[in-house]
Design brief:
It is built from six helices and no strands. It has about 140 residues and is mainly alpha-helical.
């Protein structure tokens, strides 16, 4: 099994259909939450909608690089969730998240394994491998 196949499997587990570490995944949880639950604020914690947007923001940014684009994301915008005012707004966010998840898994799966050791955009970001593994770890953290 190649490293990119292992990585794509780990991404699939946390985002779409796994149960290994957390005994659940994002898709399973998001499809069982309505928009009112998703925007419910508890103390000073981030809402489900906010965390969904946050993970999707980073995923979309990395995905853009994987398809040949620029790195166009910035930490300062990673929580700039547009207001969720209806079930349709929530469904749109969830559907975008799931779509990006599936695309991300496929792109990592299809990567030439040698790319994993290449610099991701700029040396300060490390390698593709470091960024993909970091995304997986960050996703488990936010899923929790």
């Amino acid at each position: 099994m190649t490293r990119n196949t292992m990585l794509s499997g780990r991404i699939r587990e946390v985002l779409i259909d796994g149960k290994w570490i957390a005994d659940t995944n994002f898709k399973e949880q998001l499809l069982n939450v309505n928009w009112e639950q998703a925007i419910q604020k508890v103390d000073n914690l981030n809402t489900i909608a906010m965390l969904t947007f946050h993970v999707n923001y980073y995923m979309a940014g990395i995905l853009n690089v994987l398809i040949g684009g620029e790195l166009e994301i910035s930490d300062k915008y990673s929580f700039d969730l547009p207001e969720i005012k209806s079930e349709k707004d929530w469904d749109n966010l969830v559907n975008e998240f799931i779509s990006n998840s599936e695309k991300f898994v496929r792109k990592v799966e299809q990567m030439d394994e040698s790319m994993l050791e290449h610099t991701f955009v700029d040396e300060k970001y490390g390698t593709y491998l470091r960024n993909i593994e970091g995304f997986i770890e960050h996703s488990y953290y936010d899923l929790g």
